[in-house]
Write a structure and sequence with these properties.
single chain, about 180 residues, alpha+beta, four-stranded antiparallel sheet, Nuclear Transport Factor 2, Chain: A
């Protein structure tokens, strides 16, 4: 706490020293210094995923599991508007950018199928829907906390050799009490 106060006071002192310095021929009259109320610091504690309670983890994982199942159904039904509603505006801007659409259009599979993506709807139709077409509605979903309101959702699969494999599905954020895809 003292370190934070010191880091806040040093720049303040420098600003005051520069702005109050007298130049040649200028004199500074002593003035009564007003005492300022102590600055109340708002210190955001760094998130530690190991401090998440088991109950919060389980309820969040269940919420995410339900969200992923609904999202898979939306994609299977080719419901563009419902899918788009599950994305944050920032994510929409990234995936629908001309640069991103061009980059994906240049992949071998798109070129072989003569597909050129021009819109977010094109991206949904030619990238999202085919990539989720063979996904069963029920996936074993696990999560890893990024922050209290952000998680990375994984699909847990068992390989032919019997090993458990975690495949990243989505990075999600709880916004206004609902999950949104952030990337």
């Amino acid at each position: 706490m003292e370190g934070i106060k010191l880091r806040l006071l040093i720049p303040l002192a420098l600003v005051l020293a520069v702005s109050c310095a007298s130049g040649p021929g200028n004199t500074v009259e002593p003035q009564e210094v007003e005492t300022l109320p102590e600055i109340q610091e708002v210190v955001a504690e760094e998130f530690d995923p190991t401090n998440v309670s088991q109950a919060y983890y389980v309820s969040t994982r269940d919420d995410v599991q339900q969200f992923v199942e609904q999202l898979n159904q939306i994609i299977r039904n080719r419901n563009y508007n419902a899918w788009r509603a599950a994305l944050t505006p920032e994510y929409i801007a990234v995936i629908s950018s001309p640069e991103n659409l061009h980059r994906i259009s240049e992949t071998a599979i798109m070129k072989n199928n003569r597909i050129v993506l021009r819109t977010l709807d094109d991206y949904f139709t030619h990238v999202v829907v085919p990539s989720r077409a063979n996904v069963s509605n029920r996936l074993d979903v696990d999560i890893a906390f990024i922050s209290e309101s952000r998680v990375r959702a994984f699909s847990v699969r068992t390989t032919n050799s019997g090993e458990e494999q975690r495949v990243i599905l989505y990075d999600l954020e709880r916004i206004d009490n609902s999950w949104k895809i952030i990337n």
